[in-house]
Design brief:
The protein has 234 residues and is mostly helical. Helices cover 72% and strands 2% of the residues. Strands 1-2 form a two-stranded antiparallel sheet. The longest helix has 35 residues. The radius of gyration is 19 Å and the shape is globular. The C terminus is likely disordered.
Length: 234
């Protein structure tokens, strides 16, 4: 293959990857959000994660260590993640305290904080265990490990890749049918993608993701993160 053919082949591959990205990560969430048929979201997410894992496993250039890489859980990385979480968790709690009982853009915030752990302790405990395993892990396979590997040639190895991952991770939450879920997961997407890019560890990114997700359910934002549900009452 001569140089011109090589360039043409690379350009064609970028076009195909770009079209794939738009269909899977941009169009699919919109279809799920606004289709009249309720899509079984959790099985779909696990199916996507399984397909992504299969593609990664067959990729000879993929470093499988990134799927775990417990060595990245150093004291320095742990301190960075925890300190950032403490500050943002306090900010989220303060925001909810200000918004208690208010309705903004069709979204009604709860009237009380920490109602789930106080009033439905058993369910809260199940969520604290089940959410990281059943939701966080497949999301990080798809939007961190697979996304970074699959689209790095399209978006570059730097902040373009982080921004792309974060934007489309936030957009995926359009299925919640409220802007708050999209906005907060966009910010979270930046944090988790940045952590994954810096550490090369899905485990560390998943731990950070789980901290924020569990906090959202604990402090009282849970109803805003239910698929296809716009809370109109506390």
């Amino acid at each position: 293959m001569n140089e011109a053919q090589t360039r043409e082949s690379a350009a064609g591959e970028r076009v195909r990857r770009g079209a794939e990205l738009l269909v899977v990560f941009a169009a699919l969430p919109a279809v799920i959000a606004w289709t009249p048929v309720r899509v079984p979201l959790m099985p779909l997410m696990w199916l996507m994660a399984a397909v992504c894992l299969w593609m990664l496993w067959r990729d000879p250039g993929f470093n499988r260590r990134r799927l775990w890489n417990a060595a990245a859980l150093t004291r320095q990385e742990g301190r960075r993640v925890v300190l950032r979480f403490v500050g943002l968790a306090a900010l989220l709690a303060a925001l909810l305290w200000v918004m208690l009982g208010r309705t903004v853009w069709g979204m009604t915030f709860p009237e009380t904080m920490f109602s789930l752990p106080r009033e439905r302790t058993g369910l809260w405990m199940i969520i604290m265990v089940g959410y990281p395993l059943l939701s966080v892990l497949p999301q990080n396979v798809v939007w961190r490990v697979f996304f970074f590997r699959r689209y790095r040639r399209l978006l570059g190895d730097g902040w373009g890749l982080v921004a792309g991952s974060a934007l489309l991770f936030g957009w995926a939450h359009v299925v919640m049918l409220n802007g708050f879920a999209v906005a907060t997961t966009l910010v979270g997407g930046v944090l988790f993608a940045q952590t994954y890019r810096r550490s090369g560890s899905m485990l560390l990114a998943s731990v950070e993701h789980a901290l924020y997700g569990c906090w959202m359910f604990t402090v009282g934002y849970g109803l805003l993160f239910l698929y296809g549900h716009v809370p109109d009452s506390p």
